[in-house]
């Protein structure tokens, strides 16, 4: 990414949750601790099934008397419906503000150049009234600005940046191994630990209960994790969703996202697993990429 550019993410959507019970409502269902979120700190979190499988992920930022949820736009309506299912008698309001607000990204280096900024995931400051967040998943993803569309171009001018589309940003996100595109293809197909959500700072095991907490904690405590989500590099041919990944005819995993930024669920403890090896995958061949942040 270029320090002189700001990347507008038109494929991100914004929900706004406010009301008397909004903090308690979120605390009871999401994987992270909403009490961490303030004007100075934002978090990454997920909503799981009762069995602990992935449904949605989002970045949460404080805004006025409520919270912004920054989510992939094609998921936003389904996320809103899912939250409404859990609403019951809670005194909250869930608004889709995707037509009013946009997410824009600046580089880590640009964010770090601001005065009195800590180099820490989730650290948040204000650009006038709008939250500017050091990405809580990994600071290498830079700073995220959630801003009203009408104010975006004035802020770009004040920051002395050039507006750019999102391709370079998503290329970089894939390079470091963090999925952000077509995440709906992961729904109900892997557990939170398999999605690497702990390593991406989305789970707080000290906060108490959340939906799917029992299985999530069991996998961690009993060290039952045997599969993980990894980015895939296509070295030959093409691959598609649900293609099997094989080594010497033995299945090692499966492609979950087979599009421009492919990811697969792999048995990383198998003796056949090797980052240096090329594997058969449907009508193509692939290599498994290892994110630097993943132990």
Note the main attributes of this structure.
single chain; about 300 residues; alpha+beta; Gyrase A, domain 2; Elongation Factor Tu (Ef-tu), domain 3; 2 domains; six-stranded mixed β-sheet; six-stranded antiparallel beta barrel
Question: What does this protein structure show overall?
Answer:
There is one protein chain. A hairpin with a 5-residue loop joins strand 14 (250-257) and strand 15. The chain starts with a strand and ends in a 7-residue tail after the last strand. The radius of gyration is 19 Å and the shape is globular. The protein folds into two domains: 5-175, Probable tRNA modification gtpase trme, domain 1 (Gyrase A, domain 2), CATH 3.30.1360; 226-295, Aminomethyltransferase beta-barrel domains (Elongation Factor Tu (Ef-tu), domain 3). The chain contains six helices and 17 strands. Helices cover 18% and strands 33% of the residues.
- Mean of pLDDT: 94
Largest sheet: 6 strands, mixed
Strand content: 25-35%
CATH classification class of the largest domain: Alpha Beta
CATH architecture of the largest domain: 2-Layer Sandwich
Radius of gyration, whole Å:
19 Å
Shape: globular
CATH topology of the largest domain: Gyrase A, domain 2
Quaternary arrangement of the chains shown?
A: single chain
Give me the count of strands: 17
Order of strands across the main sheet: 8-9-10-7-1-11
Low-confidence stretches: none
Distance between the termini: 25 Å
């Amino acid at each position: 990414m270029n320090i002189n550019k700001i990347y507008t993410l038109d494929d991100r959507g914004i929900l706004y949750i406010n009301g008397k019970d909004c903090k308690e409502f979120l605390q009871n269902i999401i994987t992270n601790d909403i009490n961490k979120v303030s004007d100075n700190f934002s978090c990454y979190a997920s909503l799981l099934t009762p069995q602990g499988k992935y449904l949605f992920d989002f970045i949460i930022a404080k805004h006025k008397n409520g919270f912004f949820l920054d989510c992939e736009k094609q998921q936003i309506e389904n996320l809103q419906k899912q939250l409404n299912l859990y609403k019951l008698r809670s005194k909250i309001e869930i608004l889709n503000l995707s037509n009013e607000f946009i997410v824009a990204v600046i580089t880590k280096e640009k964010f770090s150049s601001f005065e009195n900024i800590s180099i820490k995931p989730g650290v948040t400051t204000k650009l006038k009234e709008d939250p500017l967040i050091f990405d809580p998943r990994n600071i290498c993803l830079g700073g995220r600005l959630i801003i009203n569309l009408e104010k975006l171009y004035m802020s770009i001018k004040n920051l002395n940046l050039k507006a750019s589309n999102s391709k370079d940003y998503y290329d970089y996100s894939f390079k470091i191994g963090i999925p952000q595109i077509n995440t709906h293809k992961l729904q109900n197909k892997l557990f939170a630990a398999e999605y690497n959500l702990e390593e991406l700072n989305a789970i707080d095991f000290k906060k108490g209960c959340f939906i799917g907490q029992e299985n999530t904690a069991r996998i961690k405590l009993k060290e039952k994790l045997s599969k993980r989500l990894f980015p895939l590099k296509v070295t030959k041919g093409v691959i598609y969703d649900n293609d099997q990944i094989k080594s010497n005819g033995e299945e090692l995993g499966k492609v979950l996202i087979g599009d421009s930024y492919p990811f697969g669920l792999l048995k990383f403890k198998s003796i056949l697993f090797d980052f240096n090896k090329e594997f058969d995958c449907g009508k193509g061949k692939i290599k498994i990429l290892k994110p630097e942040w993943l132990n």
